[in-house]
Amino acid sequence: MSDTDSTLRAILKDVLGLSADRVAAFDAATGLFGDLPELDSMAVAGLLTEIEDRLDIVIEDDEVDGELLETYGNLLAFLEDKVAA
Amino acid sequence: MSAPQPVFWHCPGPDGQSPEYAIAHDRGRKHRLLIVPALFDEANRMRRMLVDAMDRLDQAGIDSFLPDLPGCNESLQNFTAQSLHGWRSAMQIAARHFGATDVLAVRGGALVFPASLPGWALEPTKGATILRQLVRARTIAAREAGQHEDSAALLEQGRTEGLELAGWRCGASLIAGLEHALPQIEGQSLIAQGQLGGGGLWLRAEPAAAPEQSAALAAIIAAEVKA
Q: Where are the domains positioned within chain A?
């Protein structure tokens, strides 16, 4: 598991209040926005801001679309690209 | 153990003195802690944890007071008329009213707490960070509704006309104040989330209790206040 992967899981655990076991079971196809009722626009905003803080990146407005937050795999791939850039 | 009591204090508003609500454990003891809550939705997410910490402090022989910021929670004042400056004055008035000897500022509460009191700041945060998150929630909600809103344009509008963010009708002065406000820590001790264990409750999508965090927070304050 990459550092970005473990950081993202830790943030989701904090935001969603899930157990470490449940978050560890997330895979690339696990649905986020739309599948997790807790994840409304306010929670997503908090999630993205916390990701920026912990990964030391900036996520622009136009990078946040439905696809980005559709699945765990999409979000992780986006962040791994950002961190590598 | 007794439950905390609702009490009132008076704060000047645009229409004269306005009664404001606080919850309190007040038995006239030597140590009297004013708790300045986090701002916006973070206050709701952390309230139960703080109230449980107040119960623990009561058992440790420490009085505590958790006032509403004017315009928030039970306050009858108009939220749109609020500013960081106004909240700062209000928290000074509350500190005097309750005879606070110490203060705990929580997250954005560190932007408006009475810095002349000794005490603690729990994970203080910048105004710009709070604002960025609120504006982002608005642009995401707009996108869901099939519209496009630009953060920079929203902020520009906010500075001149005010802006509705996550259901909060923020006045121009509040937006302008948040953009540059930094926590005003003057010798207070910082408490990091890691000292409480678990994840920060302000991050949580839904409000929740965290008895172990309440106990850890009260233990830190009780140990240091009596040192």
A: 3-84
Smallest Cα distance from B223 to chain A, Å: 28
Provide the token pair at B99: 């005879």
3-state secondary structure of B165: strand
Q: Which of B133, B139, B143, B168 to mutate to test the interface with A (most CBs of A within 10 A)?
A: B133
In tens, the pLDDT along B30-45 reads 999 999 999 999 999 9
Instruction: For chain B, give the mean pLDDT.
Output: 94
Contacts with B136 from chain A: Cβ below 8 Å: 45, 48-49, 61, 64
Report, at the CATH architecture level, how domain A3-84 is classified. Orthogonal Bundle (1.10)
Query: Cα B25 to chain center, whole Å?
Result: 18
Q: If you ran DSSP here, which 8-state letter would residue B150 be given?
A: -
Residue B47 Cα distances to A56, B74, B137, B180, angstroms: 29, 13, 21, 26
B12: Cβ contacts below 8 Å, ≥ 6 apart: B18, B89, B93
Residue B176 neighbours by CB under 8 Å, 6+ apart: B158, B159
Distances in whole angstroms, Cα of residue B49 to Cα of each of B69, B103, B192, B217: 18, 17, 15, 9
The number of angstroms, rounded, from the C-alpha of B55 to the middle of its chain's C-alpha atoms is 18
Domains and CATH numbers, chain B: 5-125+183-225 (3.40.50.1820), 126-182 (no CATH)
The pTM assigned to this predicted structure is 0.92
